[in-house]
Amino acid sequence: MVSAYKYDLTKFQLFQSTVKALNRKTMEAIEEVYYKSLRDPDEGYSTLRYIDLIVHLNKQYGKLTNDDPNKNFERMNAKWTPTQPIEQLFHQIDDAVSFSKDHGPISAKATVHSAQKNLENSCVFPLAVKDWRNKLKEVQTWANFQVPPKNHQMNPFLIKGDCSTYMSYCFSHGIQWDLNHNSFTCWKMDSCIIFQA
Predict the structure, then answer these.
(1) Cα distance between residue 104 and residue 99, in whole Å
(2) Taking the CB of residue 180, how many other CB atoms lie within 10 A of it?
(3) Residue 98 CB partners (closer than 8 Å, separation 6+)
């Protein structure tokens, strides 16, 4: 009898701590202005139930405004720079496509075009972009675009600038001043580009 009580008590305490953690994490991810009306003058948020928080957020802010699809498109096309891992570009496009599924889907062609334009504007992968443009249209899919550049026959190249500083590029971590850190030596990827800026 005592052991059953202790077991039930343990389960209840785990449930309570999980709910509190969910509340805390949700509130940390959202500005307080969006749920401040739920704050009790005496208890604060200590008695706020997670389900009430979610229902409030959905009811008040769950509907899209006319600007939301446009903002999503802007996020998808946000400028990527070579100082970021190339996965950052892939993630921002995937996130936008995922968001758009129920709110005016983004076509596969627009998805690839967004990534291609971003790489063109970065001026870091001229041979890669040229190679990609020469591929057959049916091969130019989003899945194929994300294949590691080595498999796109992206050869090493030079970018000539006003200085002769050598840098390496890691497809996981972006531009590196440390020539020992590149896509060959990084544990995340296995292809490398070294260029001169």
Answers:
(1) 9
(2) 8
(3) none
Cα distance between the two ends of the chain: 75
> What is the value of pTM for the model shown?
0.50
> What span, in angstroms and rounded, lies between the C-alpha atoms of 1 and 23?
33
19: amino acid identity, one letter: V
Which has more pLDDT, 155 or 109?
A: 109
Contact criterion met (CB below 8 Å) for 175 and 82: yes
Read off the pLDDT of residues 75-107 as tens digits, 9 standing for 90 and up: 899 998 877 888 889 999 998 888 887 677 889
Residues 6+ apart with CB under 8 A from 25: none
Residue type (1 letter), 28: E
Q: Which two tokens stand for residue 190?
A: 């296995």
